[in-house]
Write the structure tokens for this entry.
Amino acid sequence: SGQLQVNQGLAQVSSQDGSGKVKWSKLKLEETVKGGKHDCVCIDLGKKASQCAWHSKGDYFATVSPTGNNMAVLVHQLSKGGTQTPFNKSKGNKVVTCLFHPSKPILFVASENHVRAFHLVKQELVAKLVSGSGAVTPLA
């Protein structure tokens, strides 16, 4: 299974084979550099994550697992320890990257040929941008 370990705002992504369900667990980590224990959250994604995008407020982050079909993009909330799948269906295109809007509740999801903007509160598609020059590269 893909595991995402979040420790003091840093994300490390590692991959393993797994069941496909997201599982949260809280851990205490020994940190040898500073000495002492720190709280850590381990999220088992069930798939290899290729990217982690943080929301500007710090409580939310999204992960991209290109082989995850309808679970290719997952939105996680640290304060509640929960994960949401914002999309019920896979649109057939491999997700490349995702990014939160800096001030609005909008998640941009880029696939190989287009970028979709989703309003997270209304849970609806706001815009679909089609690439005229081929593959979409990472968003900034």
